[in-house]
Give the backbone structure.
Amino acid sequence: MIELRAYTNADIQRLVHLADNERVSRYLAPTFPFPYTLNDAQWWIETGCKQNGAVTKVIVYRGEFVGSVGIAPQTGWRSHVAEIGYWVGEDYWGRGIASEALGAMTHLAFSTGKYRKLFAPVLGPNRASMRVLEKNGYSLEAVLKQEVFKGGRYHDVYHYAKLRS
Ligand SMILES: CC(C)(COP(=O)(O)OP(=O)(O)OC[C@H]1O[C@@H](n2cnc3c(N)ncnc32)[C@H](O)[C@@H]1OP(=O)(O)O)[C@@H](O)C(=O)NCCC(=O)NCCS
């Protein structure tokens, strides 16, 4: 149902359209701000999406850019580990897109042979994201209390992970 492809400069306007939404950004890291401007999109496509060895893809659904999924490699004695993250534009929620994209990216990351472990930090209220991870065989390893300050409050982080089988 979905495909993954690389970002191009032609994605900038569409990225702003999808990303400039508080309901999309509210549980994401500060590299995904609100409001989400043209400058943010430009930085993301030129630099952010590949910073520090990251591999980030556009999620294509019915021929359209609808979201994004990527991995960020860790370093030092954790260089066998990568963080995985994803988001989908609000108009496309509830169609199984994130679940399929996470499955595809997980497969892609493990098939490189570089990683033994993928993890995702999920903020406490983000139950839909926890469900997406569980459907893809990720397990809850720990709950880090008040780990993140976002939107004027402290959030517990649910640390999900999957090992290469
Ligand atoms: C979380 C997000 C990625 C889900 O994308 P999506 O394409 O709608 O996800 P899917 O349709 O594949 O699956 C969502 C699942 O969560 C479930 N769900 C949705 N809202 C839920 C809620 N409030 N509580 C529990 N489960 C919920 C759905 O029922 C579905 O599970 P099911 O297939 O068993 O019915 C999307 O809402 C999003 O982009 N949010 C903002 C960015 C974000 O939070 N990214 C993740 C950061 S860790």
The beta strands are 2-5, 55-61, 64-73, 81-88, 117-123, 139-150, 153-163.
